[in-house]
Amino acid sequence: MVLSPTEVRTYYRFFGARHSILQLGNLVDFEVEGEDGRFMPRLRSLSHMGFPWLFDKNKLLLWHNFIKKFEPHLRDTEEIDSFYFDLLLNAAKKWNKQNPKRIVCESYITLLAYEGRLYPEENCFICEKRIEDDIALMQAFKPAHPSCIYSPTLPTKKILDFFKSKKTVFLNDTEINYLFEVVMKGL
Predict the structure, then answer these.
(1) Residue range 104-122: average pLDDT?
(2) Residues near 12 by Cβ (< 8 Å), separated by ≥ 6?
(3) Is the separation of the CB atoms in 136 and 177 below 8 Å?
(4) How much of the chain, in percent, has pLDDT values that exceed 90?
């Protein structure tokens, strides 16, 4: 699967002795050969455009885990807005300068807001009663009472501020790790 600013496409590429294997999440420039309908189009003249963080194993692993969440999210999609490409490109540009888990959380909440799936209410998604001091989050950052989903707690005010600002600057590393684990459950 190749994500471009306007579409998601699948291309054929021979994996053999003379051809390097493409890794998930790489920024590449390429040409397409054979889009005449006889067979699946092939990638040609492939060149990799790297980032400085590619040689940091921890950052690379976090990047691959983040990118893996996009494949099922964009499956069966052909035409897309440039939002998704721009979101990933901007994240990749900041990956070496900021904590990658913070970038993932900020990118994810931006994605939820763009798709209209952000649930910034002060009511529990399960029981629909008001959430007071402590909040827990389900997949897609849906708020709930910690007792409704048997989950650790976060300060409600901080999370609601995060929903509004889409910035993690006021969250500590423990809270970021919690949010990151929620994102890793799937987009």
Answers:
(1) 93
(2) 39, 40, 41, 42, 43
(3) no
(4) 57
